[in-house]
Amino acid sequence: MTDASQDGHHMAHALRLAARGLGNVWPNPAVGCVLVKDGSVVGRGWTQPGGRPHAEVRALQQAGPRAKGATAYVTLEPCAHHGVTPPCAGALIAARVARAVTALTDPDPRVSGKGHAMLRQAGIAVTEGWLAPEATRLNAGFLKRMTQGLPFVTLKLAATLDGRIATAAGESRWITGPDARRKVHALRMAHDAVMVGSGTALADDPDLTVRDLGARHQPVRILLDRGLTNAADSRLGRTAGHSPVWLVHGPAAGTAARDGWTRTGATLIEVPEAGGHLDLAAALQALPARGLTRILCEGGGTLGAALIRAGLIDDLALFTGAALIGADGHPALGPLHLAALQAAPRPILVETLSLGPDLYSLWQMPARG
To answer: Which end of the chain has fewer CB atoms within 10 angstroms, the N or the C?
Structure first.
Protein backbone atom coordinates (compact mmCIF):
# COMPACT_ATOMS: atom_id res chain seq x y z
CA MET A 1 0.00 0.00 0.00
CA THR A 2 1.44 3.39 -1.00
CA ASP A 3 1.69 6.23 1.51
CA ALA A 4 -1.18 8.06 -0.20
CA SER A 5 -3.45 5.02 -0.27
CA GLN A 6 -2.53 4.27 3.35
CA ASP A 7 -3.55 7.80 4.35
CA GLY A 8 -6.85 7.43 2.53
CA HIS A 9 -7.47 4.01 4.09
CA HIS A 10 -6.90 5.18 7.65
CA MET A 11 -8.86 8.42 7.19
CA ALA A 12 -11.81 6.39 5.87
CA HIS A 13 -11.55 4.31 9.06
CA ALA A 14 -11.59 7.49 11.15
CA LEU A 15 -14.67 8.74 9.28
CA ARG A 16 -16.53 5.49 9.99
CA LEU A 17 -15.71 5.93 13.67
CA ALA A 18 -16.85 9.56 13.59
CA ALA A 19 -20.25 8.54 12.22
CA ARG A 20 -20.93 6.66 15.45
CA GLY A 21 -21.31 9.99 17.21
CA LEU A 22 -23.94 11.47 14.90
CA GLY A 23 -27.03 12.45 16.83
CA ASN A 24 -25.60 12.25 20.34
CA VAL A 25 -22.65 14.66 20.52
CA TRP A 26 -24.27 18.04 19.77
CA PRO A 27 -23.32 20.83 19.93
CA ASN A 28 -19.90 19.29 19.32
CA PRO A 29 -18.85 17.79 15.98
CA ALA A 30 -18.73 14.03 15.50
CA VAL A 31 -14.99 13.31 15.16
CA GLY A 32 -13.02 10.12 14.62
CA CYS A 33 -9.34 9.49 15.32
CA VAL A 34 -7.07 6.58 14.39
CA LEU A 35 -3.46 6.26 15.60
CA VAL A 36 -1.19 4.21 13.36
CA LYS A 37 2.39 3.11 14.07
CA ASP A 38 4.53 0.90 11.87
CA GLY A 39 1.49 0.09 9.76
CA SER A 40 -0.67 -1.07 12.66
CA VAL A 41 -3.57 0.66 14.41
CA VAL A 42 -2.53 1.28 18.02
CA GLY A 43 -5.45 3.44 19.11
CA ARG A 44 -8.80 4.66 17.88
CA GLY A 45 -11.60 6.76 19.25
CA TRP A 46 -14.65 8.85 18.45
CA THR A 47 -16.47 11.68 20.19
CA GLN A 48 -18.45 10.28 23.09
CA PRO A 49 -22.10 11.02 23.97
CA GLY A 50 -22.55 14.58 25.13
CA GLY A 51 -19.45 15.63 23.20
CA ARG A 52 -16.73 14.43 25.59
CA PRO A 53 -14.23 12.86 25.79
CA HIS A 54 -13.06 13.91 22.35
CA ALA A 55 -11.95 11.38 19.75
CA GLU A 56 -8.23 12.13 20.08
CA VAL A 57 -8.29 11.65 23.84
CA ARG A 58 -10.00 8.27 23.51
CA ALA A 59 -7.51 7.11 20.89
CA LEU A 60 -4.53 8.28 22.97
CA GLN A 61 -5.89 6.52 26.06
CA GLN A 62 -6.11 3.29 24.09
CA ALA A 63 -2.66 3.66 22.56
CA GLY A 64 -0.81 4.60 25.73
CA PRO A 65 2.97 4.82 25.18
CA ARG A 66 2.58 3.36 21.69
CA ALA A 67 1.31 6.78 20.54
CA LYS A 68 4.90 8.08 20.53
CA GLY A 69 6.04 8.31 16.89
CA ALA A 70 2.58 7.38 15.55
CA THR A 71 0.53 9.09 12.84
CA ALA A 72 -2.80 10.52 14.01
CA TYR A 73 -5.63 10.50 11.48
CA VAL A 74 -8.30 12.95 12.64
CA THR A 75 -11.45 13.87 10.72
CA LEU A 76 -11.44 17.47 12.00
CA GLU A 77 -8.64 19.80 13.07
CA PRO A 78 -7.77 19.05 16.73
CA CYS A 79 -9.14 21.70 19.06
CA ALA A 80 -6.72 24.35 20.31
CA HIS A 81 -8.67 26.03 23.10
CA HIS A 82 -9.19 25.30 26.76
CA GLY A 83 -12.86 24.54 27.35
CA VAL A 84 -14.31 21.92 29.66
CA THR A 85 -11.28 19.82 28.69
CA PRO A 86 -7.72 20.75 27.62
CA PRO A 87 -7.03 21.11 23.87
CA CYS A 88 -6.64 17.93 21.85
CA ALA A 89 -3.77 19.46 19.89
CA GLY A 90 -1.90 19.72 23.17
CA ALA A 91 -2.70 16.09 24.01
CA LEU A 92 -1.27 14.93 20.69
CA ILE A 93 1.86 17.01 21.29
CA ALA A 94 2.28 15.61 24.80
CA ALA A 95 1.94 12.08 23.44
CA ARG A 96 4.74 12.89 20.93
CA VAL A 97 2.97 11.74 17.80
CA ALA A 98 5.17 12.19 14.75
CA ARG A 99 2.56 13.20 12.18
CA ALA A 100 -1.05 14.34 11.96
CA VAL A 101 -3.33 13.86 8.96
CA THR A 102 -6.60 15.80 9.05
CA ALA A 103 -9.62 16.10 6.79
CA LEU A 104 -10.96 19.56 7.62
CA THR A 105 -10.07 22.83 9.29
CA ASP A 106 -12.44 23.52 12.16
CA PRO A 107 -14.52 26.66 11.38
CA ASP A 108 -15.01 27.35 15.09
CA PRO A 109 -13.19 30.69 15.56
CA ARG A 110 -11.64 29.34 18.78
CA VAL A 111 -9.80 26.78 16.63
CA SER A 112 -9.80 27.66 12.89
CA GLY A 113 -6.20 26.88 12.03
CA LYS A 114 -4.83 27.26 15.55
CA GLY A 115 -4.81 23.51 16.16
CA HIS A 116 -2.80 22.86 13.01
CA ALA A 117 -0.43 25.69 13.94
CA MET A 118 0.14 24.27 17.44
CA LEU A 119 1.07 20.90 15.98
CA ARG A 120 3.47 22.37 13.45
CA GLN A 121 5.12 24.60 16.05
CA ALA A 122 5.76 21.46 18.11
CA GLY A 123 7.58 19.86 15.17
CA ILE A 124 4.73 17.54 14.15
CA ALA A 125 4.28 17.12 10.40
CA VAL A 126 0.72 18.03 9.38
CA THR A 127 -1.06 16.96 6.21
CA GLU A 128 -4.46 18.57 5.62
CA GLY A 129 -7.43 17.87 3.36
CA TRP A 130 -7.56 14.07 3.24
CA LEU A 131 -11.08 12.93 2.24
CA ALA A 132 -12.32 16.47 2.80
CA PRO A 133 -15.55 16.02 0.75
CA GLU A 134 -16.51 12.94 2.75
CA ALA A 135 -15.69 14.66 6.05
CA THR A 136 -17.67 17.74 4.99
CA ARG A 137 -20.67 15.58 4.22
CA LEU A 138 -20.41 13.74 7.53
CA ASN A 139 -20.21 16.87 9.66
CA ALA A 140 -22.45 19.05 7.51
CA GLY A 141 -24.63 19.86 10.52
CA PHE A 142 -21.80 21.16 12.69
CA LEU A 143 -20.27 23.06 9.78
CA LYS A 144 -23.57 24.70 8.82
CA ARG A 145 -24.26 25.69 12.42
CA MET A 146 -20.83 27.29 12.74
CA THR A 147 -20.81 29.09 9.38
CA GLN A 148 -24.50 29.95 8.80
CA GLY A 149 -26.20 29.70 12.17
CA LEU A 150 -28.59 27.10 10.76
CA PRO A 151 -29.00 23.35 11.27
CA PHE A 152 -28.64 20.73 8.56
CA VAL A 153 -32.21 19.62 7.81
CA THR A 154 -33.24 16.29 6.30
CA LEU A 155 -36.82 16.08 5.09
CA LYS A 156 -38.22 12.56 5.40
CA LEU A 157 -41.16 11.57 3.20
CA ALA A 158 -42.87 8.19 2.87
CA ALA A 159 -44.97 7.93 -0.28
CA THR A 160 -46.41 5.44 -2.70
CA LEU A 161 -45.04 4.91 -6.19
CA ASP A 162 -47.36 7.65 -7.41
CA GLY A 163 -46.31 10.12 -4.73
CA ARG A 164 -49.23 9.80 -2.30
CA ILE A 165 -48.99 9.69 1.48
CA ALA A 166 -52.58 8.71 2.32
CA THR A 167 -55.85 7.70 0.76
CA ALA A 168 -58.63 10.23 0.20
CA ALA A 169 -60.02 9.20 3.60
CA GLY A 170 -56.66 9.91 5.28
CA GLU A 171 -55.54 6.30 5.79
CA SER A 172 -51.75 6.06 5.75
CA ARG A 173 -50.72 3.10 7.93
CA TRP A 174 -48.75 1.54 6.55
CA ILE A 175 -47.48 2.75 3.18
CA THR A 176 -44.10 1.18 3.86
CA GLY A 177 -43.16 -2.07 5.59
CA PRO A 178 -41.28 -2.88 8.80
CA ASP A 179 -37.80 -2.72 7.23
CA ALA A 180 -38.44 0.83 6.02
CA ARG A 181 -39.87 1.88 9.37
CA ARG A 182 -36.79 0.49 11.11
CA LYS A 183 -34.64 2.62 8.80
CA VAL A 184 -36.65 5.67 9.87
CA HIS A 185 -35.73 4.95 13.48
CA ALA A 186 -32.08 4.67 12.47
CA LEU A 187 -32.35 8.10 10.84
CA ARG A 188 -33.87 9.52 14.01
CA MET A 189 -30.99 8.11 16.04
CA ALA A 190 -28.44 9.78 13.73
CA HIS A 191 -30.03 13.22 14.12
CA ASP A 192 -30.05 15.57 17.08
CA ALA A 193 -33.76 16.23 16.77
CA VAL A 194 -36.97 15.14 15.02
CA MET A 195 -39.34 17.90 13.94
CA VAL A 196 -43.02 17.98 12.94
CA GLY A 197 -45.60 20.65 12.29
CA SER A 198 -48.83 21.22 14.15
CA GLY A 199 -51.00 19.58 11.47
CA THR A 200 -49.09 16.31 11.59
CA ALA A 201 -49.09 16.35 15.39
CA LEU A 202 -52.84 16.93 15.53
CA ALA A 203 -53.57 14.20 12.98
CA ASP A 204 -51.16 11.52 14.21
CA ASP A 205 -50.42 12.30 17.88
CA PRO A 206 -46.87 11.02 17.26
CA ASP A 207 -44.28 9.82 19.76
CA LEU A 208 -41.17 10.55 17.62
CA THR A 209 -38.79 8.49 19.77
CA VAL A 210 -36.28 5.89 18.59
CA ARG A 211 -37.58 2.39 19.22
CA ASP A 212 -36.36 -1.19 18.77
CA LEU A 213 -32.72 -0.23 18.16
CA GLY A 214 -31.40 -0.34 21.70
CA ALA A 215 -30.98 3.44 21.64
CA ARG A 216 -29.18 4.90 24.64
CA HIS A 217 -30.30 8.42 23.84
CA GLN A 218 -33.36 10.03 22.32
CA PRO A 219 -33.46 12.93 19.88
CA VAL A 220 -35.02 16.21 20.90
CA ARG A 221 -38.62 16.23 19.68
CA ILE A 222 -39.56 19.56 18.11
CA LEU A 223 -43.09 20.74 17.40
CA LEU A 224 -43.65 23.83 15.26
CA ASP A 225 -47.01 25.08 16.50
CA ARG A 226 -47.67 28.78 15.96
CA GLY A 227 -50.63 29.05 18.34
CA LEU A 228 -49.91 26.03 20.57
CA THR A 229 -53.06 24.34 19.28
CA ASN A 230 -51.78 20.89 20.22
CA ALA A 231 -52.86 19.80 23.67
CA ALA A 232 -50.37 19.39 26.47
CA ASP A 233 -51.88 15.96 27.26
CA SER A 234 -50.83 14.63 23.83
CA ARG A 235 -48.22 11.86 23.61
CA LEU A 236 -45.49 14.47 23.29
CA GLY A 237 -46.71 16.28 26.38
CA ARG A 238 -47.14 13.14 28.44
CA THR A 239 -43.58 12.00 27.69
CA ALA A 240 -41.80 15.38 27.82
CA GLY A 241 -40.43 14.53 31.25
CA HIS A 242 -38.62 11.47 29.86
CA SER A 243 -37.43 12.67 26.44
CA PRO A 244 -36.99 16.35 25.60
CA VAL A 245 -39.75 18.24 23.78
CA TRP A 246 -39.25 21.74 22.36
CA LEU A 247 -42.23 23.77 21.16
CA VAL A 248 -41.57 26.56 18.69
CA HIS A 249 -44.51 28.97 18.72
CA GLY A 250 -45.53 32.49 17.75
CA PRO A 251 -46.04 35.58 19.91
CA ALA A 252 -49.83 35.14 19.97
CA ALA A 253 -49.81 31.73 21.68
CA GLY A 254 -52.14 31.89 24.67
CA THR A 255 -50.99 32.03 28.27
CA ALA A 256 -53.03 28.97 29.30
CA ALA A 257 -51.50 26.86 26.52
CA ARG A 258 -48.00 28.05 27.40
CA ASP A 259 -48.52 27.25 31.06
CA GLY A 260 -49.92 23.80 30.25
CA TRP A 261 -46.93 22.87 28.12
CA THR A 262 -44.48 24.32 30.62
CA ARG A 263 -45.92 22.05 33.32
CA THR A 264 -45.10 19.01 31.17
CA GLY A 265 -41.41 19.91 31.24
CA ALA A 266 -41.34 21.00 27.60
CA THR A 267 -39.13 23.89 26.46
CA LEU A 268 -41.02 26.76 24.82
CA ILE A 269 -39.28 28.85 22.16
CA GLU A 270 -41.02 31.95 20.84
CA VAL A 271 -40.14 33.15 17.33
CA PRO A 272 -41.60 35.87 15.08
CA GLU A 273 -44.33 35.35 12.52
CA ALA A 274 -44.28 36.21 8.84
CA GLY A 275 -47.43 36.39 6.74
CA GLY A 276 -49.59 34.69 9.35
CA HIS A 277 -47.21 31.76 9.76
CA LEU A 278 -44.14 31.05 11.83
CA ASP A 279 -41.04 32.62 10.35
CA LEU A 280 -39.34 29.35 9.42
CA ALA A 281 -35.89 30.88 9.03
CA ALA A 282 -36.16 32.41 12.50
CA ALA A 283 -37.46 29.12 13.88
CA LEU A 284 -34.52 27.16 12.50
CA GLN A 285 -32.02 29.79 13.62
CA ALA A 286 -33.34 29.42 17.17
CA LEU A 287 -32.46 25.73 17.22
CA PRO A 288 -28.68 25.82 16.56
CA ALA A 289 -28.53 28.75 18.97
CA ARG A 290 -29.44 26.06 21.53
CA GLY A 291 -26.86 23.63 20.17
CA LEU A 292 -28.69 21.54 17.57
CA THR A 293 -26.83 20.69 14.37
CA ARG A 294 -28.87 17.98 12.58
CA ILE A 295 -32.67 17.87 12.35
CA LEU A 296 -34.88 15.22 10.76
CA CYS A 297 -38.16 16.77 9.63
CA GLU A 298 -41.05 14.32 9.58
CA GLY A 299 -43.62 17.08 9.41
CA GLY A 300 -45.63 16.03 6.36
CA GLY A 301 -46.34 17.69 3.02
CA THR A 302 -47.33 21.17 4.17
CA LEU A 303 -44.31 21.84 6.37
CA GLY A 304 -42.00 20.05 3.93
CA ALA A 305 -43.11 22.23 1.02
CA ALA A 306 -42.78 25.40 3.09
CA LEU A 307 -39.23 24.49 4.08
CA ILE A 308 -38.33 23.69 0.47
CA ARG A 309 -39.78 27.02 -0.70
CA ALA A 310 -37.69 28.77 1.95
CA GLY A 311 -34.53 26.92 0.87
CA LEU A 312 -34.12 25.34 4.30
CA ILE A 313 -33.93 21.65 3.31
CA ASP A 314 -30.51 20.09 2.75
CA ASP A 315 -31.37 16.42 2.19
CA LEU A 316 -34.50 14.56 1.15
CA ALA A 317 -34.90 11.04 2.56
CA LEU A 318 -37.59 9.40 0.46
CA PHE A 319 -39.20 6.07 1.35
CA THR A 320 -41.15 4.71 -1.59
CA GLY A 321 -43.76 2.07 -0.79
CA ALA A 322 -44.80 -0.50 -3.37
CA ALA A 323 -48.37 0.72 -3.70
CA LEU A 324 -50.56 2.96 -5.86
CA ILE A 325 -53.26 5.20 -4.42
CA GLY A 326 -54.20 7.51 -7.29
CA ALA A 327 -54.96 11.19 -7.75
CA ASP A 328 -57.66 11.22 -5.08
CA GLY A 329 -55.04 10.48 -2.41
CA HIS A 330 -53.10 13.09 -0.44
CA PRO A 331 -49.88 14.24 -2.17
CA ALA A 332 -46.49 13.88 -0.52
CA LEU A 333 -45.79 17.62 -0.80
CA GLY A 334 -47.87 20.74 -0.59
CA PRO A 335 -47.68 23.52 -3.19
CA LEU A 336 -44.26 24.79 -4.23
CA HIS A 337 -45.80 27.63 -6.30
CA LEU A 338 -43.58 27.04 -9.30
CA ALA A 339 -44.05 29.47 -12.16
CA ALA A 340 -42.20 27.21 -14.60
CA LEU A 341 -40.67 23.74 -14.73
CA GLN A 342 -37.25 25.34 -14.91
CA ALA A 343 -37.75 26.57 -11.34
CA ALA A 344 -38.30 23.05 -9.99
CA PRO A 345 -35.63 21.94 -7.49
CA ARG A 346 -33.40 19.22 -8.94
CA PRO A 347 -32.01 17.09 -6.08
CA ILE A 348 -28.90 14.97 -6.60
CA LEU A 349 -29.15 11.26 -5.82
CA VAL A 350 -26.74 10.23 -3.06
CA GLU A 351 -27.72 6.62 -2.38
CA THR A 352 -30.46 4.04 -2.79
CA LEU A 353 -31.30 1.01 -0.69
CA SER A 354 -33.86 -1.77 -1.06
CA LEU A 355 -35.81 -2.39 2.13
CA GLY A 356 -37.96 -5.46 1.53
CA PRO A 357 -40.59 -4.41 -1.03
CA ASP A 358 -39.81 -0.72 -0.48
CA LEU A 359 -37.10 1.62 -1.69
CA TYR A 360 -35.10 4.18 0.26
CA SER A 361 -33.38 6.98 -1.62
CA LEU A 362 -31.38 9.87 -0.24
CA TRP A 363 -31.20 13.07 -2.27
CA GLN A 364 -29.09 16.17 -1.76
CA MET A 365 -31.01 19.38 -2.39
CA PRO A 366 -29.35 21.94 -4.67
CA ALA A 367 -27.83 25.01 -3.13
CA ARG A 368 -29.92 28.15 -3.47
CA GLY A 369 -28.92 30.97 -5.76
So the answer is: C
